[in-house]
Design goal:
The chain is an alpha/beta fold and 297 residues long. The chain has eleven helices and seven strands.
Length: 297
């Protein structure tokens, strides 16, 4: 069995999938599987992947499904992975030529308290996204990296498959298709740590139709999914400022979903009272930012 699955979920990204494919072909270590979850694409994705499978340069597993959104596609991936380790690479990103080699090197002899390793992201010009990890840091939860160590920017996690399967799948909410990935990561943080690696595992190339560019629209269209994440963060955090910020977001989510009963899951009436005006303001700001422009003829 190969040790690593690189998995990619995609929807109508045939125009940029070649970047990750060619980066995987160039890897200095070929001991991995590329698992591609096609989440209902209607473009040329299928024919592209079939041509790559015929080339037989890397091992590819291709699964097609009806569109279920990012979480549904990730759930399919987690249920399908058979290798001991896995890493998610977005359809608009790609890996440095030595990324698989670096990953396989750093997961060797990793103790059972580690859920995996976490590496760096860079842009296409070689600039780090955010900051690197403190040099002396040998272990941390993902949450502590940001809230205690001052690390900034997106990072790439390689998880043990048995652990990610323990906490997956993402909940699926009727009428919605997105819960922030951090929902599962925060659950894993309660029981395991990560080993920080100051090496670039992924090169990011943000697209106009991507998660980062459309965050406000995702927020507005998937309020209960975002609310679940905020409830989890409020209930697990001991930092008052972090809890307050998350309560502000939760209130905004509740206003979008028209379901204030979600606030009861935090059991924090005073915090709700203090944060409510700010949540109302945030909700108004997001509505303004996502409002479609009107044109006068």
């Amino acid at each position: 069995m190969k040790p690593l699955t690189v998995f990619t979920t995609t929807y109508n990204r045939g125009y940029c999938l070649h970047q990750i494919y060619h980066s995987l072909v160039r890897q200095t270590h070929s001991d991995f599987i590329w698992l591609l979850i096609d989440d209902g694409s209607t473009d040329q994705t299928e024919s592209l992947v079939q041509s790559w499978m015929e080339e037989n340069k890397i091992e590819i597993e291709y699964i097609q499904q009806e569109n279920k959104g990012m979480n549904g596609a990730h759930n399919t991936a987690y249920a399908s992975i058979k290798t001991p380790w896995n890493v998610s690479i977005d359809s608009d990103d790609y890996m440095p030529d030595n990324a698989v080699e670096l990953i396989l090197k750093n997961i060797q002899n990793l103790g059972s308290k580690f859920a995996g390793i976490v590496g760096l992201d860079s842009d296409t010009q070689g600039n780090l996204i955010g900051t690197s990890f403190p040099e002396a840091l040998t272990q941390s939860t993902l949450s502590d990296l940001y809230h205690k160590q001052g690390v900034k920017g997106d990072k790439k996690i390689v998880y043990r498959t048995e652990i990610i399967k323990k906490y997956a799948p993402y909940p699926l909410i009727e009428g919605e298709k997105f819960i922030p990935p951090g929902y599962l990561y925060r659950l894993i943080d309660q029981d395991y740590v990560l080993k920080p690696i100051n090496e670039v595992f992924v090169i990011v190339n943000y697209q106009k139709d991507g998660f980062t560019k459309n965050l406000f629209s995702l927020y507005k269209n998937n309020p209960k999914g975002f609310a679940l994440h905020r409830i989890l963060k409020i209930n697990l955090s001991t930092n008052w400022i972090e809890r307050f910020k998350n309560m502000v977001h939760l209130i905004s989510c509740c206003l979008f979903s028209k379901d204030l009963s979600l606030l009861n899951q935090t059991k924090s009436p005073l915090l709700i009272l203090l944060a409510f005006p700010f949540g109302l303001a945030l909700n108004g700001y997001i509505r303004l930012k996502t409002k479609k422009p009107t044109f006068i003829k």
